[in-house]
Amino acid sequence: MDPTLSKETLEKFRSNFFSDEKNIFAQNVCSRIDPFDACLSRKALEETHHVYEHKVEAEGKPVSNQKNSGRCWIFATMNVIRLPFMKHLNIDDFEFSQAYLFFWDKIERCNFFLNNIVETAKRNEPVEGRLVAFLLNDPISDGGQWDMIVNLINKHGLMPKKCFPESFSCETSAKMNQILKTKLREYAKTIRDLIAKGEGDLKVQNVIREQMNTIYRIVGICLGVPAETFTFTYYDKNKTYHSIGPITPKAFYEEHVKPVFDVDNKVCIVTDPRPSNQYGKVYTVDCLGNVVGGRPCIYNNQPVELLLDATAKSIKDGEAVWFGCEVMKRFAGKQGILDLKIHNFPLVFGVDIQTILSKADRLIYGDSAMSHAMVFTAVSLNEKDEVTKLRVENSWGEDRGEKGYLIMSTDWFKEYVFEVVVDKKYVPVDVLEVFKQKPIVLPAWDPMGTLANVSC
What we know:
Layout: H1 7-18, H2 21-30, H3 35-38, H4 42-46, E1 54-55, H5 72-89, H6 98-122, H7 130-137, H8 146-156, H9 168-171, H10 174-196, H11 201-223, E2 230-235, E3 241-247, H12 249-257, E4 266-270, E5 281-285, E6 299-301, H13 304-316, E7 321-325, E8 331-332, E9 337-338, H14 345-349, H15 359-364, E10 372-381, E11 387-393, E12 405-409, H16 410-416, E13 417-423, H17 429-434, E14 440-442
Parallel strand pairs: 4-6, 5-14, 9-12
Antiparallel strand pairs: 1-10, 2-3, 4-13, 5-6, 7-10, 7-13, 8-9, 10-11, 11-12
Helix pairs in contact: 6-8, 6-10, 6-11, 10-11
Pfam families: Peptidase_C1_2 (PF03051)
EC number: 3.4.22.40
GO molecular function: aminopeptidase activity; cysteine-type aminopeptidase activity; cysteine-type endopeptidase activity; cysteine-type peptidase activity
């Protein structure tokens, strides 16, 4: 059969389209409004209620907003940590400085990239090859993974948002990233040229140190430079005045935050159902990370039911849960609903659109990847003690869902959630033992690493 789209074939398509009046009606609707809004199921909206059986004691205030940046992983982490911290200080509202960790991630990530260029050059990877081309395509993004946030907190600590507030380039990071990407690609060529000439490690690292001095200047101009010490003053719920400091960010974390939330006691469990990646194995992604000498990004691969069970146990015990997912599938943004039944695509298009491929096949064929991190704060269970729905704290302000909170069905969790972070005490001992294995290295472009490559 002729593979070209002939005039006769196109005329047949046209005739088929206009022969069904439902297509004309759907066209009239979808040419005027968002096609996904046109597919919203009224029945699903009526059956969705933001009421839960188990909920963390108090949710964070104010609702955070990452604005035009890809800092969801930082915001989700700060939203999880602030809950026990606020309870400990007996305060009504609080935010850790997302800008503070964003600053240090940019600095550390640029240094990590430049050293990846050294490593790949020593491996004799060609600049036109897939690995180096992948690294150069997006040398500095806003996204990140759980192990990367642990690296930043353990090395640089935390600050209250009042002591290091947002800047324009925090909230709208594209232009700063554009500057950094150009310089990093320029520096990558310089480094590869030095190595090609046979220059030693000392010479190369001296050049990187000079390059990083410039990077620090650029980032500092755009984001501001955090103070070495700060003083945090606040009123508790009883209107009593308190003051902490002067104190370093690292000491602030270790003395005031770590006793109520120790990042080293939390573990990241993922679910990757691809046949090539067995459950009960630990994986990592080549060249993924943010701090030279820091902990690598480790993925303990388990069935999705284990992630769901650990999440429920944590929330029932009063601890919120950090998680990574693919947020834009089967998502009613304005209503804040994540549900496989929220859209009736066949009614409008005559064919289903999403969740046709299995979760594994979507990963294999490029139709699924982690794109967003958020926080679970509540769950509901049925009479069999099975999770039926979950409450989600997002970082997109108060305009979506129930004043910034989303609702997720269990079926959606199983299809589009890929990782959760919970305390070790909620994970079976045999699963914790998996972390002792030598990680299997996935390629740098593997979809398990995409959350770290999110930009604005």
